[in-house]
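User: Let's play a game. I give you a shape written as tokens, and you guess the letters that built it. Ready? Here's round one.
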């Protein structure tokens, strides 16, 4: 089942009624959605009120709730803490993970990321995409040559965004759109990790002691090019915005469908949202010694 992503950005109230999320806007109109259908809930207005009963029901259903700040970017996450029964077992496996095994897993992550970048770039710059494929084949354990960064420079400089485009956190459009998409992806990956029973704070490569989502930052890497693809698909909309203008709610609605984009693994095609859970499940198998290979799909 494909979980739904709901985005609320106008004043109103959210409450629970018979295991349904009930939205009531300022105009008095109501809409309902079954709690079990919701995978990600975005709250993008300080004038939205939520009941504690609703928050508890969302947590029980393993729904991630994302709160956005005044610039419409995610600023906080609410993730369920009882989504899996073997949390203690998997936490011990995470703590016991050796640096050598972590480096092997990071190698797979970066190889998958660069491969997916090549797929997204291929229609626009075939020669640069071929170079990325060569880089993907050269990635070694732990990526000591930092091929991830080398690939990123080639990738973003070859995308048909703008002649002087630079990938920056606070740069001109479409940086804001990319940042928002990555933030939503991060929340979705964190949700999948919690649902699989692992702690998103214990990363493989990202290990900042102040980062509560280091493992999400690791596992989201191969999925980033899917966000890039949807930004490219709507580039005319984002490029038309003034450089000083923040990402609008309307702009966000063009980004969120990336979670339902079809991806492929071997002969199987599924939405990105479904593959997130399969990727985190493959990580659990690697942590427990049942498998050696992470599962990551490729864009269509």
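Assistant: Ready! My guess for every position:
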């Amino acid at each position: 089942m494909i979980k739904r992503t709901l985005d609320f950005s106008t004043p109103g109230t959210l409450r629970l009624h018979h295991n349904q999320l009930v939205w009531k806007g300022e105009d008095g109109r109501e809409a309902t959605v079954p709690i079990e259908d919701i995978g990600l809930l975005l709250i993008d207005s300080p004038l939205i009120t939520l009941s504690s009963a609703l928050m508890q029901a969302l947590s029980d259903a393993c729904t991630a709730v994302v709160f956005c700040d005044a610039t419409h970017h995610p600023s906080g996450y609410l993730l369920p803490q009882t989504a899996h029964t073997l949390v203690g077992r998997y936490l011990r496996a995470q703590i016991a993970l050796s640096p050598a095994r972590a480096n092997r897993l990071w190698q797979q992550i970066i190889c998958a990321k660069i491969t997916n970048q090549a797929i997204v770039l291929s229609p626009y710059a075939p020669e640069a995409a071929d170079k990325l494929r060569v880089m993907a084949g050269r990635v070694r354990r732990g990526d000591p040559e930092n091929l991830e960064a080398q690939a990123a420079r080639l990738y973003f400089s070859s995308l048909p965004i703008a002649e002087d485009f630079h990938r920056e956190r606070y740069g001109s459009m479409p940086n804001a759109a990319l940042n928002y998409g990555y933030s939503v992806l991060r929340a979705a990956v964190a949700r999948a990790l919690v649902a699989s029973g692992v702690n998103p704070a214990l990363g493989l490569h990202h290990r900042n002691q102040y980062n509560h989502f280091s493992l999400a930052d690791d596992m989201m890497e191969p999925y980033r090019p899917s966000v890039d693809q949807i930004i490219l698909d709507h580039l005319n909309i984002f490029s038309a915005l003034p450089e000083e203008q923040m990402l609008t709610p309307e702009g966000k609605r063009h980004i969120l469908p990336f979670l339902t984009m079809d991806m492929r693994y071997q002969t199987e095609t599924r939405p990105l949202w479904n593959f997130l859970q399969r990727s985190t499940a493959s990580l659990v198998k690697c942590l427990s010694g049942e498998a050696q290979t992470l599962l990551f799909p490729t864009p269509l």
